[in-house]
Specification:
Elements: E1 11-14, E2 18-26, E3 29-35, H1 45-58, H2 63-72
């Protein structure tokens, strides 16, 4: 991991087309801005982790769910 120290107003450039700006520092909070092409998805990690967890849970199937499905769609 690369660790950088930046001050308010300073920027970091990634791959010539992604710009990270330090907008404001207040106490232990840092407000950053991310400028990237629309083709690049930018997500907060905790939101992405939550989506991944929900996707995993949506694929789980309980035995009583399977029984109900078999009752609705009996095999011929």
């Amino acid at each position: 991991m690369l660790v950088l120290t930046r001050s308010e107003g300073e920027k970091i450039i990634i791959l010539k087309n992604i710009e990270i700006s330090v907008l404001k520092v207040k106490g232990d909070k840092v407000k950053i801005g991310v400028k990237a092409p629309k083709s690049i998805q930018v997500q907060r990690k905790e939101i992405l982790d939550n989506i991944c967890e929900l996707n995993k849970k949506s694929t789980l199937c309980r035995q009583d769910d399977l029984t109900l499905i078999k009752e609705i769609f009996p095999q011929k």
